[in-house]
Specification:
- By secondary structure, the chain is an alpha+beta fold.
- It has three domains: 2-30 and 167-392, Rhopdopsin 7-helix transmembrane proteins (Up-down Bundle); 38-160, Immunoglobulin-like (Sandwich), CATH 2.60.40; 406-565, Reverse transcriptase/Diguanylate cyclase domain (Alpha-Beta Plaits, 2-Layer Sandwich), CATH 3.30.70.
- Helices cover 54% and strands 15% of the residues.
- The chain is built from 17 helices and 18 strands.
- It is elongated, with a radius of gyration of 37 Å.
- Mean pLDDT is 84; it is low at 1-15 and 557-562.
């Protein structure tokens, strides 16, 4: 157990190193250059104008039903446009589809994170228009944000040098690739452990992590560039709704199983499972071919997810306070992501408009969550293995003598036979039966008999090697398996055990009480299995009884004749 805990602790430094590296790349990706200071206004549908600072997050003023375009007009604060080639950039444009034009000119081809078109760089969580001919100084540029049935996003607008844009683009691509690689790797590891341990909590975690990664690759445009998954980008909104629904349901189910709510917080389990069921039902309703039902996810999924976040924090906190170790892992991993998600939602309404790196921070928080929850699963893996090993030990151990029982012995013998044949090594088996044990029970009672069995088992354990097996078949019968043991060595060990038993005095408080043992020895043959090898050693033991007890008899591995080793 301590070795496994050391392994878990040993991954902390690599995890911290990964996080420091990701934070460093994120700082480069979100760093803004000096650029050109811009003034901007939104041209409203009623004919009015609303000034905004394009360097700060501003929500696109589109009607709630998405029925109309939104138009922004920008101009350099000093009136002077760049002299040469530069990029008109919109970092983190969410779902927006954008065009630009000079006054009196037609709009450019549309560009969006899922729609890479001529004249626009897009897909790396940014849209960039490469402009070679700028308007005359003082003349504004217009940006049109297309009408669409989607939540209006928040945008920033900047004029960037081509090299500056490329550096930020490359840094973000490195950051996103690393984050997605971590999420997918953790998910695949969870699938492996789900298969090995037959534990559904690992599979739920894998499904949650993959679906959340799916949300991010859609929202950032990673699905379009560099992945170039046209089948997904072509209907990204539908896939996004599915990913959001699945991740929400699986997050709730994961908390239930991972934190063992049934054991630590039964009421909390109900608080978690009810929202999970509602989210699943609403998501399924959106797949039905009925117009009224298909609109339900758009209306209800986000409120249900927003409500479930605080519920999960509350339930995990109470479960942790009541002793659920894994609820603590969940709180550490989940809380930063939840807080950043809430901040991102609040930014839609003007909160913290200067923090333009919240999307990247959310991606980092999701990666942090993947690592922390994977550490929790690793810890749970160790705990499960310890529990199962303990249960297996109890199932394979004789409760009286604490040596292997028949089941444990036979399974160990079968493995030893396979190993001996694979390595072409000799193997011997000793069948030991205490002499006149029934009369001992009759004379001195079962307590004395039990004490005798414990003392003999302790003696045998002290005399055999670490790789040898000792088991009690039942009653006064024991078996010793001697892997990698030639004939002479096996007979020597058998004789040492026989003489050791003869020196045992039963420590039950009564005077007298010596023991003797008859031992049969058999050697592994090419056609032996566990049963036949035990049977031949058993026959040899009965020959020892016939020859007067308290002796060792080996059955010859060539012609089944017996060899008698007098013990006195």
């Amino acid at each position: 157990m301590s070795r496994d805990c050391t392994r878990i602790q040993g991954v902390r430094l690599p995890v911290l190193a990964v996080l420091v590296l990701l934070l460093s790349v994120s700082a480069v990706a979100t760093a803004a250059g000096e650029g050109i200071e811009l003034d901007a206004v939104w041209l409203l549908a009623d004919g009015g104008e609303r000034p905004f600072d394009p360097s700060r997050l501003s929500r696109v003023p589109r009607p709630h039903d998405g029925s109309a375009d939104a138009v922004a007009r920008i101009v350099p604060r000093d009136g002077r446009w760049p002299d040469g080639v530069a990029i008109l950039a919109l970092p983190r444009p969410a779902l927006e589809i954008v065009q630009w034009r000079q006054p009196g000119q037609p709009f450019s081809t549309a560009a969006g994170l899922w729609r890479v078109r001529d004249g626009g760089f897009s897909g790396h969580d940014r849209i960039g228009f490469r402009i070679t001919h700028w308007p005359p100084d003082g003349v504004p540029i217009e940006l049109r944000f297309a009408a669409q049935q989607a939540i209006a996003g928040t945008v920033t607008i900047a004029i960037q040098d081509v090299d500056e844009f490329a550096r930020a683009d490359a840094a973000w691509l490195a950051l996103a690739s690393a984050c997605f690689a971590v999420m997918v790797t953790m998910a695949l590891m969870a699938v492996f452990f789900a298969w090995k341990l037959r534990e559904s909590v690992f599979l739920i975690y894998a499904g949650y992590m993959l679906s959340y990664a799916g949300i991010q690759i859609i929202q950032t445009g990673f699905v379009s560039a560099p992945l170039d998954w046209h089948w997904l980008a072509a209907d990204a909104r539908s896939w996004g709704r599915v990913a959001i629904t699945v991740s929400g349901v699986l997050a709730l189910l994961f908390l239930d199983r991972f934190a063992s709510l049934a054991a630590f917080f039964r009421v909390g389990r109900l608080l978690v499972l009810v929202p999970a069921g509602l989210i699943a039902l609403v998501g399924l309703a959106g797949l039905l071919p009925m117009a009224g039902l298909r609109s339900l996810p758009t209306i209800l999924i986000n409120p249900l997810l927003l409500a479930s976040g605080p519920i999960m924090l509350l339930v995990a906190t109470v479960a942790w306070l009541r002793g659920s170790r894994y609820a603590g892992f969940f709180l550490v991993g989940w809380t930063p992501l939840l807080l950043l998600t809430v901040i991102g939602s609040a930014q839609m309404y003007g909160f913290a408009p200067d923090w333009v790196g919240s999307d990247d921070a959310t991606l980092l928080a999701a990666t942090f969550e993947a690592l922390v929850l994977s550490l929790g699963l690793a810890d749970k893996t160790v705990a499960l293995r310890v529990e199962r090993d303990h249960a297996r030990t109890l199932a394979d151990t004789d409760p009286l003598t604490q040596v292997l029982n028949r089941r444990g012995l036979v399974e160990g013998l079968e493995r030893a036979i396979v190993a001996a044949r694979r390595r072409s090594e000799p193997m011997a088996l000793l069948f030991l039966d205490l002499d006149h044990f029934k009369s001992l029970n009759d004379r001195r009672g079962h307590a004395a008999g039990d004490q005798a069995l414990r003392q003999v088992a302790d003696l045998f354990m002290s005399e055999i090697r670490g790789r040898d097996l000792l088991g009690r078949l039942g009653g006064e019968e024991f078996v010793v398996v001697l892997p990698r043991c030639p004939r002479g060595r096996a007979l020597h060990i058998a004789e040492r055990l026989r003489s050791g038993v003869a020196d045992v005095r039963i420590a039950d408080g009564e005077p007298g009480g010596s023991l003797t043992v008859s031992i049969g020895v058999a050697f592994l043959k090419s056609d032996d299995d566990a049963g036949t090898l035990i049977d031949r050693a058993d026959r040899a033991m009965y020959r020892a009884k016939q020859f007067g007890r308290n002796r060792v008899v080996a059955i010859d591995d060539e012609d089944a004749d017996t060899h008698r080793d007098n013990g006195g």
